[in-house]
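Feature request disguised as a bug: please show the residue count (299) next to Fpg/Nei family DNA glycosylase in the output. Example input:
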Amino acid sequence: MPELPEVAAIADFVDGRTAGLPIRRLDIASLSVLKTADPPYTALTGRLVESVGRVGKYLIIRTIPGPQADPEPVINLVIHLSRAGWLRWSEDLSPTPLRPGGKSPIALRVHCGIPSATGGEGFDVTEAGTQKRLAVWIVRDLTEVERIATLGPDVLALDRDEFAEILAGTGARIKNVLTDQRVLAGIGNAYSDEILHTAKLSPFATAKTLTGEQIDTLYEAMRDVLTDAIGRLEGQGVAKLKSEKRTGLKVHARTGLPCPVCGDTIGEVAFSDRSFQYCPTCQTGGKVLADRRMSRLLK
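Example output, currently without the count:
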């Protein structure tokens, strides 16, 4: 799943190629991904891309009127890539309209920038697998997207005291706090594993019971892991972001491999449709956490 660093890198990549240029056309191949009807997706035709950024893990393409476009001051194209979505840039997109209902992984095609004799620049938004969770909104104001309106603060915008106040107000496990977008926006399963490993905290630690020293360590780990990832991804082409993310992971998706810090075997806690990884020596005092499908903790 693309998280804050990947979405930031995608936004930077697309912004550098489209800002100030028009959107020529949108093609919708999967009608289920489009969650709004007003404005219609056709309203983006001819509008200029003012900027491309992010809010949490949401990609925001902000458009303003072009010479012959909808006069609405601002229309935003909002994309949430969810678990299996991705963006694929092309210098020469086919001009042939997409056919809704096909078997292609392409859900949305955005023709933008400079046209050519055979097509032109733009990008596809794709989704792999059978669980279709990718979502697209076209809105005048971002608060019209309920998921954005209910987001917690961006994790990189918090100072240490604000972070501590959030932790003190919940009895949830710290893994859940870090990944709950209503509490903190931007972190998903992979980077929460990396942050907790760096901070040497159990995923099952209770947020409000952390000591001041543990909060300091967790806050610094959160900022360090995310800013390091952003730095590594900066300037990378979209096609390379997934592999670059994997090379920077120390524990996530490395079940059974040695911990790069202590050498212990990295463990896994598996749920019905996802899992997370941790190091017993670094994080849980040597205790092995049980598969959560067994609903207990090994002693």
